[in-house]
Amino acid sequence: MSERPRVGSPVLAEVAPGVHAYVQPDGGWMLNNTGVVTGSGGEQMLVDTTSTEARNRAMLDAVAALADRPPKALVNTHHHGDHVSGNWLMPPGTPIFGHSDCRAEVLRASRAGTSGIPGPDYGRTEVRPPDVTFSAITTLYVGDRPIELIPVGPAHTRGDVLVWLPEDKVLFSGDIVFNGGQPFLVEGSLPGYRRALSLVRRLLPDVLVPGHGPVCRGEEIATILDELNAYTEFVEALAREGLDSGRSPLEMAESAAGSRFSGWQEAERLAGNLHRAYSEFGGDPYGARMDARRMWSDMARIHGGPIRSRA
User: Fold this and answer.
1) What is the pTM (predicted TM-score) of this model?
2) Which of 215, 289, 296 is nearest to 249 (CA)?
3) In what order do the strands lie in the sheet with 96-99?
4) Which tens digit of pLDDT belongs to each residue from 213-249?
């Protein structure tokens, strides 16, 4: 398959007064977005870290230029390495907030020796899971600015959290929203993901910072939510057709090569998402663990070779 263009440089953009999105083009595997929220007294809270040591240090340098003090807290939207690998670079004693399932999954990945997607030089790595956990809506304050942490998993993962700034109408969605790429539901739930999208819509954000891809504003938000919901319906229809006809997730993914979603980045995720749909339609609980080896093999087949990151 043809090589995608070289990735661009990260951009730290103010999306509301005192609220910044750190956007990493082109939003592919391990190229996520993070955020920083600044309070009236100059206090800062980060939303997620990123994948490699070099990228995390660059992100923290950019954030440091906004204030003369280190961040007072960090929120992880979920456990994937491109969102938590920089946790260890936070100053000692800085609280890291995350869903209880996020903490459990970070520790589980560490025990299993799970590494990131091949490709980049990850540099030094240390495991630091969230140390303040929750499983219900939780409100933090940065200065006098309220920030709501809203659990929505299982969706993308078992421990997804939306970071909602109600007074600013800004939402950091984590990987509930991929802008330009197919969502990845292997560790979450197809119906759960659809419910999470509905909640995002009900919040009526003016600005949405996705986990990957460009920031969305205004009418763009409804459009991307409509598209992502249409994608879930597409996956569901393919899965039901495959189950009825006795065809495998890989066969169904290959049959859909010409769909309107094939042009989205990471089109290989369709094979993994179909494995998740087959599991749930077969009666497995939402978010149930599955054998990742078969799914990654099938995704590599759709991709046309080993899946690598350009982070």
Assistant:
1) 0.96
2) 296
3) 11-16, 19-23, 34-38, 44-47, 73-75, 96-99, 132-134
4) 999 999 999 999 999 999 999 999 999 999 999 999 9
